[in-house]
Every structure is written in C-alpha cells, then in structure tokens.
Amino acid sequence: MTTPISALIESLDDVVIGRRREVELVVAALDADRHVLLEGPPGTGKSTLLRAVAGGLGIGFVFVEGNAELTPARLVGHFDPARVLTDGYEADVFVDGPLITAMRDGSLLYVEEINRIPEETLNVLITVMSEGELHVPRYGRVAASPGFRLVAAMNPFDAVGTARISGAVYDRVCRVSVGYQSAAVETRIAARGVDGLPSGWLDKVVDLVRRTRSHGDLRVGSSVRGAIDMPAIASSLASLRASTVNDPAVSLDAALVALSGRVRVREGCSRTSEDIITELWNEVFDPASAGQSGKVSAPSGATR
Fold it and tell me: Which CATH class is domain 183-285?
C-alpha cells in the first residue's frame, strides 16, 4: 500500500536524481522528529535534497549560511538599538533572528556548512537541540514549537575554512553521509538543460570531471556542477565560433572555464589548475595523443 511518505519519496526521484536512499533516510529522520546532519563533499546535492524534502513535506524552511561571521546575535536575534533608547527592552523591540523565527514557526532551520561557524554560535544550537528552548538575556525563554528541527550540511573537515565538529553535535543529530553519485547518474544530471549533444560526448565530460577527484596533484576535484557547466559553455562557444562541441579548441576552452576554478592544486605543486585540466582533457578527449608531443597544451597565461 502506498503511504503519503512513500508517495513523497517517489515524487522526489526526478527532483533529486540518484538520491533515493538518502531521501528516505532524511524523510525518516524528520518524520521521527530528529535533527539531521548531511555530510559530504561540495556539489553533491545536500542543499537541493533538503530543500526538496522540506517542500515535499510542506514544512517551513529557514536558511542560514554558515560562516565565521555568524555570531550568536545574528543567529538568535537582537534588540533594536534605536527603539531600546525610547521603549527599553520590551518584547516587541526584539528582532528575531533565523533561529528564533524557526523555533516560533515550528520550521526547519537549515544551517549550510555548519562546520564553518564559530564555536560559541555552535553552542547555542547545541543548547536548543538539547533543551528545545533558549533563554535570551533581557527577553526571556523561547520554546521551540512542534515541528522545529535543525537540519545542517557540512563539507569534510579537510576543506579550507572548516573546523572539526565536536562530539556534542554528533550526539544530537542523525548523520547521513552523501558521497558522489555514479557516472551514469552524473551524466543524467549533466544532460538536463542541454539538447542535441553528440552521442558519447557528454559521457566524456563526466569522465573528465570524475578524474579531477582522483588526480594526485589536486586536493579537491570538481563537483557535478562542472559537468553541468561545461556542456552549456561548449554549446554557446561553438555557436559563437560557428563550430561544434567536437572541435578540440571549443571543448578544451569549455573545460578550462568550467573546471579550473572548481579544483584546488595541492600545496607545493608547481603546476597550474589549467595544466592539470588540460592533461586530463587530453586523456579523455584525445587519448591517442595524450603524453605525446602533439597533444593540446594549456593556453599561455594560465594561473594556479
């Protein structure tokens, strides 16, 4: 028998491609009234998944971008300084922050990149997850309405600007690991929004993107967003040059534009991101000349 929850999961298959298991886990955790943490590399669809689930469940969704400037006051809220001078610390002088808004409304508080926020701000979230309420100085107690849950996403600890999340956070959330999808799924994702590409060409694009994730000189490879952008750029560039995406110059330039900013070269490596993308492009799009003197070279002026 089909239940409303299973029907929801079915409906999200075309929205969040290749994430059936992860969708089921998130929906189950939220249905059990638990806080959720999605952990995985950038560009693996964590935000898309959470937004789709919240929309499908009809739950309010309050977004917070995690960064070093997210202070407790910005998260919780503050008293309007101008009105405090005239009215004092009255309840209607308080300006709700995203946390208080989500608590009052019984919504999901989505914290993106939670491992980038300061420890003192993280401690506020730990208190709310533990107690279901928060005491705001000069304002009083704010209790979370039914339905309030924290949903957060984070990149791996070794990503630049991230910190290791404490055990106190992990002890209060249900963690769902989100890895890269299969090549077939990434090809389906990259194919959306582009038409008329030569057979097999898009497969090569995805192969190129996936190779950046295991290259020895790169500490960070491209997400599937690179595979989405490269075909779009190649199609536009081919039109501008009265050529096709099979033109090596068009294909390589599109790869450099779409991927060079998404990868990160390892410290101490003397090569540029353009050098590495060009090397991988030769391996995928022109394997006969890869490693030979006739291979295509990175354009002059490339930077690390």
Answer: mainly alpha
Residues carrying CATH 3.40.50.300, the chain: 4-177
CATH of domain 4-177: 3.40.50.300
* Tens digit of each residue's pLDDT (9 = 90 or more) over 11-70: 888 888 899 999 999 999 999 999 999 999 888 989 899 999 998 888 899 999 999 999
Residues of the chain with CATH 1.10.8.80: 183-285
- The mean pLDDT value of the chain amounts to 89
pLDDT digits (tens, 9 = 90+) for 250-289: 999 999 999 999 999 999 999 999 999 999 999 999 887 6
3-state secondary structure labels for all residues of the chain: CCCHHHHHHHHCCCCCCCCHHHHHHHHHHHHCCCCEEEECCCCCCHHHHHHHHHHHHCCCEEEEECCCCCCHHHHHEEECHHHHHHHCCCHHHEEECHHHHHHHHCCEEEEECHHHCCHHHHHHHHHHHHHCEEEECCCEEEECCCCCEEEEEECCCCCCCCCCCCHHHHCCCEEEECCCCCHHHHHHHHHCCCCCCCCCHHHHHHHHHHHCCCCCCEEECCCHHHHHHHHHHHHHHHHHCCCCCCCHHHHHHHHHHHHCCCCEECCCCCCCHHHHHHHHHHHHHCCCCCCCCCCCCCCCCCCC
Picking from 91-95, 135-139, 235-239, 292-296, which range would have the lowest pLDDT averaged per residue? 292-296
